[in-house]
Amino acid sequence: MTPDPRELLKGAGLRLTAPRLAVLEWLASHPHSTAEHVAEGVRERLGAVSTQAVYDVLNTCSRVALVRRIEPAGHPARYETRTGDDHHHLVCRRCGRAEDVDHVHGAAPCLEPSNSAGFAVDAAEVIFWGLCGDCRLPPRNEESSA
Amino acid sequence: MTPDPRELLKGAGLRLTAPRLAVLEWLASHPHSTAEHVAEGVRERLGAVSTQAVYDVLNTCSRVALVRRIEPAGHPARYETRTGDDHHHLVCRRCGRAEDVDHVHGAAPCLEPSNSAGFAVDAAEVIFWGLCGDCRLPPRNEESSA
DNA sequence: ACGTTTACTGGAACCAGTCAAGAAAGCGAC
DNA sequence: GTCGCTTTCTTGACTGGTTCCAGTAAACGT
C-alpha cells in the first residue's frame, strides 16, 4: 500500500506539515525505527527539525492510529506505519531490533486471557524475544558482553 | 510454595543479607510491586535501605531467576517471585497494575512465531492490556491500587 | 578473629521522553 | 491574495526510572 501520507494526514484531520510528511515517509520505508532514528532520517531530508517536533509528530500520529508504537522492555520505543492489523513482533534482546510477525493461528488463541481478574481487556500484545541474526553470530562487536 | 528466602538465596549462591531477605519476603506477599513500592516495604521492615540496594537486589535476583521483572510500556517495572512458569500478565493501561494470567492452552500456541526472520527466539511474552476494575469504574480515581 | 569477597550507601549521572513559552506556519474566510 | 485564528514547531529546561561510581560496611570460609 504505502498510501500517500498527505491523504493519511488529511483523513485524520491533521495539518500537512513538512515534519509530518517526512516522518511518515521515513517510517514507511524504515519501519521499527526509534524516535532518534526517525529524527535523523527526517533531518537528512529537511535539514533541521527539532527532536521535540519528531516526538510530537510520532505521538500525534500514534493517537490517530497512523503510526503504531512498540515499546520493548529495556529499549527505546519503535514506530511503524503498519497499523490496523494487530501483528506481533520479534525483538532482539541485545540490539532491540524489531521485525513483524503475522499471527498465523486464525482464531488468535492467545488473545483471550484465561481469567481477566476484573480487567476490561482491549488488546493482547505478543513479543517474541530472542537474538537477531547479527547479534547471535559475531561476538566481535564491541558490545559482546550480554 | 513460598519457600524460605534463605534457602533460595543460598541455592543461588548469593549471600544472605537483610535487604535481600526483606525484598524476597515482600515480593512473596506483594507480587507485581514496583521498585519504589518494594523499597517502601523493605524500609518499613528494616528501617533505612538505599534505593540502590533495592535495585541491586532486584537485578541480582532477576539474574539468577529468583525474581522476574515485568516492564509494561509506559509504566515502571514490576517484580514478582513467581518464576519458572512462563505465565503472562494483565496490565492496566491507566494505573499499571499487573495480574497474573496462566496460559490455558496446553500447547501454548502463541509461543511460536510464524516466521522467525533469522532470530533465535527464546521466549514469548504476552501482555493483555486493559483497565482494571478500580480504573474503569470511577472516573476520578487517578492512580492508587495498593 | 581475620581477611577476602561481596554488598550497601550516597551522590551524581543517564536516557528517553515530556512540559512550557513563544515563534512560525497551515488553512479557511474574506 | 492576504487576514487571522489555530495548530504546530523551536528552544531549552526538566522529569522519572534506573544505573554507575567510589567508598565503606557487612557476610562467610578458614
Could you give the distance between the termini of chain A? 39 Å
- How would a textbook summarize the main sheet of chain A? 3 strands, antiparallel
CATH superfamily of the largest domain in chain A: Winged helix-like DNA-binding domain superfamily/Winged helix DNA-binding domain
Overall pLDDT metric of chain A: 87
Number of helix segments of chain A?
5
Compute the CA-based radius of gyration of chain A.
Answer: 17 Å
**Assembly of the depicted chains:** homodimer
Low-confidence residue ranges of chain A = 140-146
CATH topology of the largest domain in chain A: Arc Repressor Mutant, subunit A
Number of distinct beta strands of chain A? 6
If classified by CATH, what would the architecture of the largest domain in chain A be?
Orthogonal Bundle
State which percent range the strand residues of chain A make up: 15-25%
Order of helices and strands of chain A: HHEHHEEEEEH
Cofactor (chains A, B): Zn(2+)
InterPro entries (chains A, B): FUR (IPR002481), Fur_C (IPR043135), WH-like_DNA-bd_sf (IPR036388), WH_DNA-bd_sf (IPR036390)
Family (chains A, B): Belongs to the Fur family.
GO molecular function (chains A, B): DNA-binding transcription factor activity; transcription cis-regulatory region binding; zinc ion binding
